[in-house]
Recover the amino acids of this structure.
């Protein structure tokens, strides 16, 4: 499923053509690219849920006047998916203002829905990029993340 998300992101993110909205046509293209139907449907459902997150306002659930010293506590399931390196990277992105509390929670939500036995820091970076790309008003954060992702291909970003 993650391979399909990456395929779509890489093929349509910088494309001058409009992203196809016809699900049948997109499914056919993905099948021609070698992906299986069940994985295609999971990936498309993941993208639909990402779009739905944009319409959800989670800000009322945050405490008023949250300070930078507040830590995110991860559930056991989140810890199993997001290792210490991933958690540290999310914290780093908040500290450099790439993510805020809302977009961080969107990233975590999308990570938890990825159907993959293996998930690593590199995968997380791409999920962050996908989330920021899909959130209106986060163009600056997206550009910052893109710079972080492509600026240091051989090293860690934090």
């Amino acid at each position: 499923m993650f391979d399909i998300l990456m395929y779509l992101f890489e093929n349509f993110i910088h494309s001058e053509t409009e992203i196809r909205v016809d699900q049948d046509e997109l499914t056919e293209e993905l099948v021609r690219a070698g992906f299986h139907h069940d994985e295609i449907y999971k990936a498309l459902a993941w993208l639909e849920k990402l779009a739905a997150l944009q319409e959800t306002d989670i800000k009322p659930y945050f405490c008023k006047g949250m300070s930078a010293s507040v830590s995110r506590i991860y559930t056991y399931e989140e810890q199993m998916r997001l290792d210490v390196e991933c958690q540290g990277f999310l914290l780093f992105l908040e500290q450099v203002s790439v993510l805020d509390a809302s977009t961080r929670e969107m990233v975590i939500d999308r990570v938890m829905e990825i159907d993959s036995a293996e998930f690593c820091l590199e995968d997380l970076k791409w999920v962050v990029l996908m989330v920021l790309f899909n959130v209106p008003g986060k163009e600056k954060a997206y550009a910052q993340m893109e710079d972080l992702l492509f600026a240091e291909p051989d090293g860690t970003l934090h």
